[in-house]
Design goal:
TIM Barrel, alpha+beta, 13 helices, 7-stranded antiparallel beta sheet, 2 domains, single chain
Length: 553
């Protein structure tokens, strides 16, 4: 059983207090520690603002042991690491000003977590594990509703911390600081037990395969392209269940009901009807909290936007030339969001919404609530807007608050059209930039989520020959990895252009995976080996992740 030492920081009457005890003049903390759990409840004696809380203990690494670094949100690179690895934050160049720091850091945890770039210093959100062989010691938060739970380890000193990001929360009543399970079992058994204990809402789907428009055209879509690619799926119709329209149909991000009439003269209900005529579910992309600076909603309703400390609208992402964030706690903004969901889902008739850039609602604590509390309430709000029967595919979202809310979720960054990566990959700006290699990394190391929490969306694979810098071998590896570890399987290709080889491959990769994965991970710095059982036969798929070439299969 671990021996934990507390460290609690809070603010009272404008002064900051620090305590390494479970009780003080202003509070008491009930702490319960067993072999299988850690629980801490704060009992404040007066209203206080929380700053930080953590428990410290000893946890030395064993030889050949790995630690899982679950990134802050769905895009964040999430590897298994060795004791001498390094996980870096944003590049120093990005810190030249407060504005550039915010731009580079806002999609991740860099504004509130410590990245000192030391070997062996790692942190993981919501859950983590130490693994040796197939045996794991799993630490998992049972609730993120009062703040993000963060597990931090330092292999060089043997220190291990369990932290709660309570910064900004104001409370005068009992406050749950930690509720963490500790499970020591084989990999699959540990995750079966952990996620079963959360009693999550079940996803309404088990598998989806089909098309999304983004990775061929980006915002340059129109009615002709969409209907042509819809017809292009006819040759693989029996393998397709969903057709999703991505960004580009609206005039500006945020003005979701203002459809670009030049690009979509028949409107979005017409497109939805044609998708249904093919027998597919219809999906559509929305960034429900985002609005471009030039959007109608941002110009006409600046009071609906989240503001910085100077009262100016705060950037929530740098896409589309910069976008602000609607404040869901503003009643009029919340009504606006409810309205466009109602139209899209009930008047236009779409079956699924892909909801993106969700992290932007909770970049900073506000309204006496921590980041994690805001994010959990944001996800509850979105489910309320969408309703129980329609599907949500989450993206750009911290994972813990999405548990039990979304039906499917991206578990990786965007793939890139260049396998080796573009300039931003080489710069290493942050852990959220597009990368085919990082996407596959997350597909492998977040595989435990698939089917237990939601359907994993590993992002698209490619089979087309144009507008792409992948070898055939690299395309095959990406498709194979997605099929092995995901249950949301998308292409952005016009399947009408496929030859016989590509047609057969897409049918293969769209099928639900019937393999049982035994193990998957790095056997060398760039070499990944996946061992699995298929048709009662033990199989292996080994490849070089960096170069994108197959070693064994």
């Amino acid at each position: 059983m671990y021996n934990f030492a507390p460290h609690f920081v809070y603010k009272l009457n404008g002064r900051i207090f620090e305590s390494r005890s479970l009780s003080g003049d202003d509070f008491e903390i009930d702490m319960s520690v067993t072999d299988n759990s850690v629980k801490c409840i704060l009992h404040p004696k007066k209203e206080m603002e929380l700053v930080s809380f953590k428990l410290e203990t000893e946890r030395k690494w064993e030889k050949d042991e790995f630690f899982f670094v679950n990134g802050f949100q769905s895009w964040s690179t999430s590897p298994e690491v060795r004791f001498d690895d390094t996980v870096k934050g944003i590049v120093p160049l990005a810190k030249i000003s407060k504005f550039t720091t915010h731009l580079a850091a806002m999609s991740g945890d860099y504004l509130f977590e410590n990245y000192d770039n030391r070997q062996g210093h790692f942190h993981s959100f919501t859950y983590t594990y130490f693994r040796k062989g197939n045996a794991v010691e799993l630490f998992g938060s049972k609730c993120e509703r009062t703040g993000y739970t963060v597990f931090e380890t330092d292999s060089q000193t043997g220190k291990f911390f369990i932290k709660k990001d309570v910064n900004g929360a104001v409370t005068s009543g009992d406050y749950e600081l930690l509720d963490v399970s500790i499970i020591r079992k084989d990999y699959d058994e540990a995750f079966d037990e952990y996620f079963a204990s959360l009693n999550l809402r079940k996803s309404h789907i088990e598998h989806m395969s089909g098309y999304t428009s983004w990775y061929n055209y980006f915002q340059k879509i129109d009615e002709k392209i969409i209907l042509r690619d819809l017809d292009g799926l006819d040759k693989v119709r029996d393998s397709v269940s969903i057709f999703q329209i991505d960004d580009g149909y609206e005039t500006f991000v945020g003005d979701w009901l203002n459809v670009d009439e030049k690009k979509f003269p028949g409107g979005m209900k017409n497109i939805c009807d044609k998708i249904h005529q093919k027998g597919y579910k219809a999906g559509i992309w929305i960034a429900p909290f985002s609005c471009q600076r030039v959007s109608k909603v941002a110009k006409e309703h600046p009071d609906w936007l989240i503001k910085d400390e100077k009262g100016k609208p705060m950037w929530g992402c740098f896409a589309w030339g910069g976008a602000y964030t609607l404040d869901m706690y503003n009643p009029e903004a919340a009504d606006y969001i409810r309205h466009f969901f109602d139209v899209i889902l009930n008047e236009w008739g779409y079956d699924m919404v892909k909801l993106d850039f969700l992290y932007s609602e909770a970049i900073y604590p506000r309204n006496g609530k921590s980041r994690g509390q805001i994010m959990c309430e944001a996800m509850d709000f979105l489910r309320e807007c969408v309703g129980e029967e329609k599907l949500i595919l989450g993206c750009g979202v911290p994972l813990g608050p999405s548990f039990g809310v979304v039906d499917a979720c991206r578990i990786s960054c965007d793939v890139d059209l260049v396998y080796g990566g573009k300039f931003y990959n080489k710069l290493g700006v942050n852990r959220e930039v597009p990368s085919a290699q990082n996407s596959m990394n997350n597909s492998i190391f977040r595989r435990h989520l698939n089917g237990r929490v939601f359907c994993n969306d590993p992002d698209v694979f490619f089979l087309r020959k144009t507008n792409l810098d992948f070898t055939d071998e690299q395309k095959y590896i990406l498709g194979r990895v997605n099929n092995l570890f995901g249950d949301v399987l998308f292409v952005s290709d016009n399947a009408g252009d496929y030859g016989e080889k590509e047609t057969e491959l897409v049918k293969t990769f769209f099928k639900p995976n019937d393999c049982k994965v035994i193990s998957a991970g790095f056997v060398d710095r760039d070499i990944i080996s996946i061992k699995y059982i298929q048709n009662e036969k033990e199989c292996e798929f080994t490849f070089n992740l960096k170069k994108g070439n197959i070693i064994r299969q």
